[in-house]
């Protein structure tokens, strides 16, 4: 009997046995694979209207004063590339009546200097809107299909805009609880993950929304990065510590015969 058990154990060991159980762990500290795209001193590599954009105390500052109001939104555009699949981390601080956002997978609007259209990680100040309404963290498509996912939502964007609206397929939490994550008048970190047709917005370590964009006409799978000052009353937005990690495109799935062969090897 003992010999039989030993033989069974040896056979299981030779076959590889059961796979060990693993659980996710915290990401190691640091930002491995990320590279800075703002030098903290100048606007080298960026382009925008210098009436509204400057560098101050290690941050990019966008500001509208009573003397420099604008009629249309304007952007500071990063000229270092047009990322497709990537991760982007940025710290920001916004005035209480501020309205801004980080655009990505975007395009410039022809005939309009520093005008941009595309996905946006929406940002606003504590007193920007009436009744305590906050847009921070949402996926807003500037100059396009407007709100693709509100804070707390997982959405699917089907083809057919504007006749067909984005569809809510799940939730990442309670909207008001997620709103409490925003640090008013202080520095926050936003984190964008764009991979294939799925984009994820994270703020201060909490997922704000996820968008699965299945609209082949409306979506853009690559494009420029830019930051916004919004038309309206005086406001100020500060950005620092821009960190970008380009990701290789996901490989296509193997053909059925190749998958079957791999499973039997």
Quick take:
By secondary structure, the protein is mainly β. 10% of the residues lie in helices and 40% in strands. The radius of gyration is 23 Å and the shape is globular.
Verbal overview:
By secondary structure, the chain is mainly beta.
Portion in strands: 35-45%
**How many strand elements?**
17
The N- and C-terminal alpha carbons lie at a distance of 33 Å
CATH architecture: Sandwich
Largest sheet: 10 strands, mixed
Rounded average pLDDT: 89
Number of helices in the DSSP assignment: 3
Question: How would the blueprint of this fold be written?
Answer:
Elements: H1 2-14, E1 35-36, E2 46-47, E3 53-56, E4 59-64, E5 74-78, E6 86-94, E7 99-108, E8 116-124, E9 139-142, E10 146-149, E11 153-157, E12 167-171, H2 175-179, E13 188-195, E14 198-203, E15 206-213, E16 224-229, E17 235-246, H3 256-264
Parallel strand pairs: 11-15
Antiparallel strand pairs: 1-17, 2-5, 3-4, 4-17, 5-16, 6-13, 6-17, 7-8, 7-16, 8-9, 9-10, 11-12, 13-14, 14-15
């Amino acid at each position: 009997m003992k010999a039989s058990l030993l033989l069974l154990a040896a056979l299981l060991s030779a076959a590889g046995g059961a796979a060990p159980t693993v659980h996710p762990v915290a990401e190691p500290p640091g930002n491995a694979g990320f590279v800075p795209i703002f030098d903290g001193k100048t606007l080298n590599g960026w382009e925008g209207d210098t009436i509204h954009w400057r560098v101050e105390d290690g941050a990019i500052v966008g500001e509208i004063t009573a003397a420099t109001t604008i009629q249309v939104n304007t952007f500071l555009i990063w000229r270092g590339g047009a990322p497709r699949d990537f991760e982007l981390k940025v710290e920001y601080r916004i005035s209480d009546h501020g309205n801004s956002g980080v655009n990505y997978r975007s395009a410039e609007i022809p005939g309009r200097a520093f005008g941009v259209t595309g996905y946006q990680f929406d940002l606003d100040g504590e007193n920007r809107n009436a009744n305590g309404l906050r847009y921070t963290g949402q996926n807003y498509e500037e100059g396009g299909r407007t709100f693709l996912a509100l804070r707390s939502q997982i959405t699917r964007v089907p083809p057919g805009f504007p006749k067909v609206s984005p569809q809510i397929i799940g939730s990442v939490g309670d909207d008001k609880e997620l709103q409490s994550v925003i640090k008013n008048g202080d520095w926050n970190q936003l984190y964008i993950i764009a991979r294939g047709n799925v984009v994820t917005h994270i703020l201060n370590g909490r997922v704000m929304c996820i968008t699965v964009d299945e609209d082949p006409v409306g979506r853009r799978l690559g494009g420029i990065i830019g930051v916004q000052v919004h038309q309206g009353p005086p406001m100020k937005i500060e950005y620092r510590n821009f960190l970008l990690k380009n990701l290789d495109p996901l490989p296509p799935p193997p053909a059925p015969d190749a998958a079957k062969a791999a499973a039997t090897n």
